[in-house]
């Protein structure tokens, strides 16, 4: 009998310390604390499924200040990772930062479907590891090929992104005759509900079910969707997924009997709050600098904005969304603007801090101005209107925006348009008013400012891909917001939206 243990993390998003940076409270999260759970010996592998370099305030601070050695690499090295796979967000800060991380991390970087034209990124398509007990494990890394749709072109100009499934198959064919166990680390998720079989997406963004059904990997470790999927067999492949921010770690136990048969099981380990990781002391000055920076003033507004629920904001408007739309309009000089908010529910004090800006706008998005017409805007607003569902005569959030991944950020708030949703009507037929400057659009063309993620057409907005690009603003919205506040120290108001939502109960909104 041969036994092996795997520890697996994913989507840590540079949450190294036990804090979410929305406040300074210590929480059960962060890679420093999670790595205390790793028990390493010659029959153990520590693996990660990607999205390491972007996401937390620390990631933003590191990107801005560019230290000689990345703290993310230091923590991965201290945790003695064996193999890691890049995630789509690891490309957000460009090729040079990815190169720096790959050069500094001691783990083997696996990615079979990304090729560096300059051959500078230290990546392998697969690796075969022989443990002390002789068990041979073949590992393959795969990245969702949708990164080529989401990422800014300049960040991928040195790279070739190939089809995820084809590369997973090619590598499996090579390693299977040489291994006792095959394992695919896939920075992607499930396209179906594993309990009901319901199709969750028709795109190729997530193809874990297809990989499990059509290929014969023994283990498929998934990522990207930030949802916890307990270890289970899917068409003979053992698979699981973890939530984000290093809140949990998977421990996978593998047994091979003398005849070569495999028995695989797993458990989920919860990240401890204490005792503190020794690494916290090593980086205490960095963390103090990050916290000081987050607490510094970004600017002032007339009065505080109290946090509201996602449903309340979508029905009645969000002053924080109005704030970002105003900035986008001022900077881009576009006719109209749309913005989305992250999955948390932050507020603003009258004296806004950088912490509050980053909590409200979590991603390093840049801006794109597209030329749109009434037909495109109608499609976009119908997608927004699909955010709502009606249950027993009351408004709720459509499960499509909650399962398999929470995606409140795919509901957009508009400025410069007058529009109405009637939720008593079927999805796809809910937009009942759409005006610009009090008039129907007709054949009129408008310039619409949005973030670069939305401009790629993802999130159900694929029609934006066909729209001409008028302007690109390659500075992230977080920085633009701080700059705008500093240039408008006496800002007293910003444009209010003009929209209403008609529900089975009442009419709400702003107008």
Concise structural overview:
It is built from 16 helices and 27 strands.
Number of helical elements = 16
How far is it from the N-terminal to the C-terminal residue, by CA?
71 Å
The overall pLDDT, averaged over residues, is 94
Structural class determined from secondary elements: alpha/beta
The residue ranges in which pLDDT falls below 50 over 5 or more consecutive positions are none
Largest sheet report: 6 strands, mixed
β-sheet strand percentage: 25-35%
User: What is the 3D form?
Assistant: globular
Strand order of the largest sheet: 4-3-2-1-13-14
| Number of DSSP strand runs | 27
Supply Rg. 24 Å
Which percent range fits the helix content? 25-40%
Structure write-up:
Helices cover 25% and strands 26% of the residues. It is built from 16 helices and 27 strands. Strand 9, helix 8 and strand 10 form a beta-alpha-beta unit. The termini are far apart. It has 511 residues and is α/β, with parallel strands linked by helices. The strands form seven sheets. Strands 4-3-2-1-13-14 form a six-stranded mixed sheet, with no helix packed on it. It has a six-stranded mixed sheet with strand order 6-7-9-10-12-11. It has a five-stranded mixed sheet with strand order 21-16-24-18-25.
Features:
about 500 residues; six-stranded mixed beta sheet
Sequence-ordered SSE layout with sheet pairings:
Elements: E1 2-9, H1 31-34, E2 44-48, H2 57-65, H3 71-78, E3 83-84, H4 95-104, E4 108-109, E5 114-116, E6 126-130, E7 136-143, H5 147-150, H6 153-156, E8 159-161, H7 164-175, E9 181-187, H8 208-214, E10 219-222, E11 229-234, E12 237-241, E13 248-256, E14 262-270, H9 278-282, H10 284-295, E15 297-300, H11 310-316, H12 319-332, E16 336-339, E17 351-353, H13 354-360, E18 367-372, H14 374-385, E19 388-391, E20 394-397, E21 413-415, E22 418-422, E23 431-435, E24 446-451, H15 452-455, E25 469-473, H16 477-487, E26 498-502, E27 507-510
Parallel strand pairs: 1-2, 2-3, 3-4, 7-9, 9-10, 10-12, 16-24, 22-26
Antiparallel strand pairs: 1-13, 5-8, 6-7, 11-12, 13-14, 15-17, 16-21, 18-24, 18-25, 19-20, 22-23, 26-27
